[in-house]
Amino acid sequence: xxxxxxxxxxxxxxxxxxxxKGSVKSLFHPKKEIVKAVDGxxxxxxxxxxxxxxxxxxxxxSTVIKMLTGILMPTSGMCRINGKIPQEDRKxxxxxxxxxxxxxxxxxxxxxxxxxxxxxxxxxxxxxxQYQKRMAFLNEVLELDSFITxxxxxxxxxxxxxxxxxxSLLHSPKVLFLDEPTIGLDVVVKDNIRxxxxxxxxxxxxxxxxxxxxLADIExxxxxxxxxxxxxxxxxxxxxxxxxxxxxxxTLEFELVNAPDFKLLDYHRRFxxxxxxxxxxxxxxxxxxxxxxxxxxxxxxxxxxxxTVHVKxxxxxxxxxxxxxxxxxxxxxxx
Length: 335
Fold this sequence. Notes:
By secondary structure, the protein is α/β, with parallel strands linked by helices. It has two domains: about 1-245, P-loop containing nucleotide triphosphate hydrolases (Rossmann fold), CATH 3.40.50.300; about 250-320, Alpha-Beta Plaits (2-Layer Sandwich). The chain is built from twelve helices and 13 strands.
């Protein structure tokens, strides 16, 4: 459904020297620098998949989304979505996609939400009977009824995000691009939006690309992720593969009988490990030790802890997706 081949996007940035002299110089003899926002990214997404597209701020995620949706022209490379090249057949192409940018709305600020949808119905030329069925479905999954008569400017952030997602789905798109759809939302609204995305994907087979900084979105919605950093792809695979290959970190959590006893624990000296291989911290009587099981066993860490300090309670946690991704960003593991 989605095919991207060696996508690159470069921007020219003018470097201005300080002061009035620098302003005049940059006006007549501007010094330019080439910034590579996206540097040779390739991937494919089959029909009906929810793909997690993640990376730190400035990694190039939104730039890739804008090229896939036809907003930006690639400097080189190409992309094809459902057989169409976005930049060449834009009018017909946008009839088949839905887009939500979490920090920008596509809704008319002063119109009631119901009237906004009526305008979008005419723009996308949705037949009356299909529109009524579609609105009934969107009301069911996104719970729009309580605010559908309200002007968009009066909606809360959570209501506006649900309204934006409904607007992007009004014409039954085959591909849905979601760029930070849960940003700034509370737990309940996030859960509602996740459930809506899952239901739409399951019932209609809609292909979804999701960019997010909320790793709970990724774990709950996506079986596969593409991770980029500094414009380059650094990982492409399933969550299970990520955990299997890089899931060698464990966390030992325990409650101390006497909190000051924590200073008696010197894991680095005992096991000859670096800060990257083991880290220990305390918050009151609660302590947390993160360690690499390829360097030291769980049994050795637990045995040393219990033989050195008195412990009320103890728990060992497996690796979390958030920790794996942090380590990937810091290049602590091989890619």
